[in-house]
Amino acid sequence: MFTKLFLFVSSAIAIVLLACTQPTPPTNIDNAPTKMAVSAPAPINNAAPQDTVGRNYLMGKIDPTTDKRFAKIAAKYRNAEESYMRIEAYESFQKMYEAALKDGVTLRIISATRPFNKQKAIWEAKWTGKKLVDGAYLKGEPKVPSERALQIMRWSSMPGTSRHHWGTDVDLNELNNPYFDKGTGLKIYTWLKEHASEYGFCQVYSVKGAERPDGYQEERWHWSYTPLSKGFTEEYAGLITDKDISGFIGSESAVEIGAVKKYVLGISKECQ
Length: 272
Fold this sequence. Notes:
Elements: H1 2-20, H2 55-58, E1 70-72, E2 84-86, H3 87-102, E3 109-111, H4 116-127, H5 145-152, E4 169-172, H6 183-195, E5 201-203, E6 222-225, H7 226-239, H8 253-257, H9 259-264
Antiparallel strand pairs: 1-2, 3-4, 4-6, 5-6
């Protein structure tokens, strides 16, 4: 009885050992049954749907000379003053510049990114009579601050409300509308109206009227890179109120004027 049991156990162990020593079949995904096929996972898109930038950025409290989102504009594209743009806007502008040049049109940037402090210097120089406003110097202390603010805001933004804070907007060639009525100016403006949208740019301040009753006067020189600026405009509307506009002479007028609704958001439909 003991001998039979010993032989049975020995045989069982031998079978187990033999099974363990058999070679493992090679794994080959091409030969595997269909139900065993493994598909690679779909890539995950971690990119934000919109480049949200926050309150400080939107109000110009940044330094484009050190911010890696900005690029220095090469001298061939601008006037003497050193200027910066958002990289995406700058790259698209360069393409637009080359296309215009082939058609005999030369685009020159005369103003681009302006941080809060630079806009503040412009604003306060006009407020205190050190810089011209519509061909004249404003004198003394205003009896009604909001009236002085509105006079300046025909052409200039309050600090914290300028689209030039964002690095998406540029002023081109000349800062007066009559220049674009004839000759070289008309050729430039006509080209921009026909082709700027192909490169993502739009004229922010169109003629004031029923479609754009509020905001700044028409500016044929001011063009905005909408793939970024549309989102920044929406973000500004959701984050910033008139009460947030402060830190400069006359800032108390922002609430009375309705600076955000009428000026920051008072843009052409093409740019919305």
